[in-house]
Amino acid sequence: DETEFRNFIVWLEDQKIRHYKIEDRGNLRNIHSEDWPKSFEKYMKDVNCPFKIQERQETVDWLLGLAVRLEYGDNADKYKDSTPDGAKNADNTAKNAEPLINLDVNNPDFKAGVMALANLLQIQRHDDYLVMLKVSFTERLTQDAIAKASQSKEGLPVALEKHILGFDTGDAVINEAAQILRLLHIEELRELQTKINEAIVAVQAIIADPKTDHRLGKVGR
């Protein structure tokens, strides 16, 4: 949006870059003027921006970088001991080993997700959504299922978008979960078919190679 873009440039100059004196910012602040592009082009030259006025994405990125450098220069003592967000997140992850520790059980999205999961797994509804979530994982995941899931399997990655579900639940997340469950079910059917085939082969081997007692008959008469 042109107006938003011009306001953004004025805000950067007024609040962070401050290349012009306050009394010299009038032309840049007059965002509704037809001559604003010329004022902006002059401003870019004055701050030594290496990009052209048509290269807006690059210009915005460069001006933001300039603003950050100036902001840091004005408040070096404040920022020099700052911890990167990535490191903070790593610390928080280590501290919050319990995945449900920061869960907002009153969040409407959480309630809707738990209700959808309970419907899929046919879990009886409960006033406490956290209880329903725990039941979904404790009652529906048997020890055999947990043991099987813990077994490491190597295979090719599957592109879910290439597999047609055949129905729509109205929720993209639930649709994806249903696709995964269907693929897992197909895998189990294939394993069962393989075992059946092995059993058939074993029976055929016994039938095709019977033990013969030659004393009971003659050959050729």
TrEMBL record:
Family membership: Belongs to the RTRAF family.
Record InterPro entries: RTRAF
Lineage of origin: Eukaryota, Metazoa, Chordata, Craniata, Vertebrata
Identification of the protein by name: RNA transcription, translation and transport factor protein
Species this chain originates from: Donacobius atricapilla
PANTHER family registered for this protein in UniProt: CLE
